[in-house]
Amino acid sequence: MTIAARITAQARAQAQDLLDFIDAGPSPWHVVGECEQRLASAGFRRLDESERWTLPPGSRCYVTRGASIIAFVTGKAAAQGLMMIGAHTDSPGLRVKPKAAETAGGMWRIGVEVYGGPILATFADRDLSLAGRVNVRSGQGFVSHLARFEQPLLRLPNLAIHMNREVNEAGLKFNRQTELPLLLGLADDGVKAERRFRQLLAGQIGVAPDDLLTWDLAAYDTQKGSFWGADDEFIASSRLDNLASCHAALSALVAAENPENTCLIALFDHEEVGSESAAGAGGSFIADAIARLAANAGLDAEDQRRMLAQSFFISADMAHAWHPNFPAAYEPGHHVLVNRGPVIKSNANQRYSTSADSAARFMGFCAAADVPCQQYAHRADLGCGSTIGPLVAARLGVASVDAGSPLWAMHSIRESAGVLDHAAMIAALTAAFRPPLP
After folding, report:
1. pLDDT tens-digit profile of 19-28?
2. C-alpha span between 77 and 299 (Å, rounded)
3. 68 with 89: CB under 8 angstroms?
């Protein structure tokens, strides 16, 4: 069967919905906001960590902490374990400094810090803008506003090849302090850059400049996601890592109806910088939510440990797709191909949480969903990245597998993946939420 014949209308619709999801989430705070909207439309109720929870069987709820969100459907047999899927809402890129605006040589620039490990060269010559959250004075406290500039606002122009003759041989490199400030406009005589930036930001959210207190702002690419390839079998977008996994997990949870076991997704911020934060996978967020689920089910400490011993965690994060132009970068026996199904990722040094048992279990989910799966191992002479999987598995003491869809150009501002792979990942995660745990 040709690739065009294999891409069903449903698979194409799921890929388009993913691209729409990514476009609605130019920052982790926007991602959480979009998740909240979708969950609310599916009948999920918002919880507050500072209030008591009441969670009868069948409860469909979610709770947020910073730019992280946990959502769940409580099952009929709470003591028999949880089925959990984790992913992350953040992506590597450029974050605006607290005092960002400056002038240099008649230009108005915005200072940024590198967040995580982006391929910095891919940010050059792109139509960039700003998105995130802004804290605004309100009485003696503050309120948070989501902020997003839709139009191209910023740029990181390349240096002409006439002044950088070795760029094609040595590669494009930026000094993180002196060469990454983003150009925003021409400097105005007599107007301080910081004041002008505050006026711009305040005008976007409709408040007075003097009421702006703090912000968390990220530079993002305004180009929307697209289909590409001879048969439109691929997709390209910013932040596929790891919003594709967030979207797949969210789709699977929304489809979970009357589960025997509690089904939970945890979408964390700060994975790209190590997860060690109150809202990250290294913090207490998921453990706190599980403890409250156990308490609402009437489980004592012994029963909660029995519950965790029967639980399972899927760390959903993207995998390195084989690139035919760079075969030497890959372990020869573990080429994973785009549009050939979800990938189980393994590492002997526990950079991934997969064991032989958990890999076999995920293979079972793929078989139940009638989708293929692949296995990946990194070259032994290259450093291997990690995920939230080992962190969550260690902190909770649960069995865990690392799995994700194949991806080209991971950490580029423009990544690529397969239409069929995203549909297969949704199907596998939906199957994971469907059967009772043994």
Report:
1. 999 999 999 9
2. 11
3. yes
DSSP at 399: E
Do 51 and 165 fall within a single domain? Answer: no
Torsion of CA 304, 307, 311, 315, to 10 degrees: -10
* Confidence category of residue 301, pLDDT binned at 50, 70, 90: very high
Rounded CA-CA distance 59/249 in Å is 18
85 closest CA partner among 75, 74, 71: 71
Is 115 in contact with 271 (CB distance < 8 Å)? no
Note whether 418 and 350 are same-domain residues: yes
The stretch 289-298 carries a mean pLDDT of 95
Alpha carbon 183 to chain centroid, angstroms: 27
Asked if omega into 325 is within 30° of 0 (cis), the reply is no
Report the C-alpha gap between 331 and 240 in whole angstroms: 23
Residue 210: HSE in the Cβ half-sphere, 13 Å Cα cutoff: 0
The answer to whether residue 226 is domain-embedded is no
pLDDT digits (tens, 9 = 90+) for 4-49: 889 999 999 999 999 999 999 999 999 999 999 999 999 999 999 9
Parent domain of 193 = 93-221
Same domain, 139 and 214: yes
In sequence order, the 6+-apart residues with CB closer than 8 A to the CB of 270 are 88, 90, 276, 277, 279, 280, 281
- Residue 55 has, within 13 A of its CA and on its CB side, a CA count of 31
Same domain, 116 and 46: no
Strand partners, 218: 95, 131
Q: Identify the domain boundary among 221, 249, 281.
A: 221
Q: Where does 155-228 show beta strands of DSSP type E?
A: 182-186, 212-221, 226-228
Q: Which residues contact 272 (CB under 8 A, 6 or more apart)?
A: 88, 90, 91, 92, 115, 116, 117
Token pair for residue 66?
């910073």
Distance, CA of 84 to chain centre:
16
Shared domain for 184 and 160, answered yes or no, is yes
- Is residue 225 within 8 A of residue 237, CB to CB? The reply is yes
Report the first-to-last Cα separation within the chain, whole angstroms.
36
Nearest residue to 294 (alpha-carbon basis) of 286, 303, 285: 303
Opening angle at CA 329, ends 325 and 330, nearest 5? 105
For the chain, the residue count is 438
Residues 376 and 402 in one domain: yes
CB atoms within 10 A of CB 50: 5
Are 430 and 255 a contacting pair, CB within 8 Å?
yes
Residues 172 and 267 in one domain: no
What pTM did the predictor assign?
Answer: 0.96
